[in-house]
């Protein structure tokens, strides 16, 4: 099961629940269009089912913590979207 995706130029590192990952030859945008996940940053997409916690600082960027403890930044421009999307799946 995919937990989160990390963009690396025209490649994407797909991170799985068991801690393994695969590097694939599709840009992050390709996955953003195909999967019902949340784009939290220009270089990261998360599976909302594996988000443990979401925090946002006053008018600044925030972060999401995944089930495995990994913390990923949420950009300012994606704070409201991330909050709305996470509330929709709860």
From TrEMBL:
GO terms for molecular function: DNA binding; phosphorelay response regulator activity. The lineage of its organism: Bacteria, Pseudomonadati, Bacteroidota, Cytophagia, Cytophagales. Pfam families: LytTR. It comes from the Bacteria. This is LytTR family transcriptional regulator. Residues 1-90 form the HTH LytTR-type domain.
């Amino acid at each position: 099961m995919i937990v989160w995706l990390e963009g690396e130029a025209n490649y994407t590192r797909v991170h799985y629940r068991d801690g393994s990952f695969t590097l694939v030859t599709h840009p992050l945008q390709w996955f953003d269009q195909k999967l019902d996940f949340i784009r939290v940053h220009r270089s990261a997409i998360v599976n909302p089912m594996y988000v443990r916690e979401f925090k946002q600082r006053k008018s600044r960027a925030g972060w999401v913590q995944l089930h495995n403890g990994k913390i990923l930044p949420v950009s300012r421009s994606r704070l409201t979207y991330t909050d709305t999307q996470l509330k929709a799946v709860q």
